[in-house]
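Ticket #4471: structure output looks truncated?

Reporter: J.K.
Steps to reproduce: submitted the chain below (304 residues) through the standard prediction queue, then opened the result file.
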Amino acid sequence: MIIVFGSINVDLIARVPRLPRPGETLRGRTFSMLPGGKGANQALGAVRAGARVRLCGCVGRDAMASIALRALRAEGVDVDGVRESDATTGVALVHVDDAGENCITVVAGANAHAHAAQVPDALLTAGATVVMQLEVPSGEVAALARRARQRGARVILNAAPALALPAGLLEDVDVLAVNEAEAIALAGGVGAEDLRTFCLRLATAERAVVVTRGAMGVLYSWNGKIGEQAAPRIDVVDSVGAGDAFNAALAAALDRGDDFEAGVREGVAAGSLACLRAGAQDALPMRDAIVRVASTLPRQCDVG
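Returned output as attached by the reporter:
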C-alpha cells in the first residue's frame, strides 16, 4: 500500500502565448479550474498506475475542497486521512505557454496545517511505501519519514518545491526524486558542481537518487552505479503533471515489488504520457498505457 502525505490544491490555469515577464500583463487565451496539489496528483497517479493508495493531507471548509477531492474519490483514492482546516483549500496559480512550459505560484492554505500524526502507525509497515513532497510543512515531512523508517516502511521524497531540507531528513529517505532545477538548488549544500556529482554525493547503499530532466530523460544513482534512462520523443502539450506522473508511477512500481530500474522506466513513460494532455490530474496516465510505452524504451545506460 502507498501512503501519500502531501498537498491538496485547486489549480487555476491560464493558457498564455508565452510566460509573462516581471511587471508585465498578458492576455490569456483560456482559463480552467482543476484539482491539483502534488500530494493529490501523486495519489491519483499511483492509483491509475495500479496501486492501492491512501492520501493524508488537509483541505478547507469551502467550495474548493469538493473540487479538490472529487476525482480522487471517484477513482478509488482512500481519502480517510484528509482532514478539514479553518484555512482555505490550497491553490496553485499556473501559467502554461504555447511550448508547454509553465510557471506556478502555490498558496498553501490548509496544506500548512497538515500533520504527520494524520498517518497512523498501523499503516507504517514493512510492506508500505510512504510518498511525500514539500508543499506541506517540512518539519512534518521529516517527522513522518523518521516514523516510517523506524517501522520499516519505504520512504520516497519528491523534494519539490526546492527548499532547504530539515536536518537528518535524508537519512530516513530511500528514494530522493528531484527535477533538474531542484537538484541545482540543493547541489550547493553537498558541494556538487554538476548533476552527476549531485547524484553520487547523495546516493548511499540505502538511498537512490533520481533527477528528472524533461526531454533528456532521467539521471539516477542506485546500487553503487550511476545511469540514465532516455525518454521517448513527444510533442509536448503541457508539462504541468509530468513530474507527479513520474513519481507516482515509480512509487507504484516499487510498491508492487518491481526493481528500481524498471520503476524508473515506468516513471519516464508516465511522465512523458502526462505531457500529451493539458492539466495535471487529467493528464495522469493509466497502467496499460504506462506499460506499453515503457516496453518501447531502451534499457538504462550506465554512465560510469
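Triage note (M.O.): checked the attachment and the full C-alpha cell line is present. The chain has one domain: 2-20+30-302.
Status: closed, working as intended.
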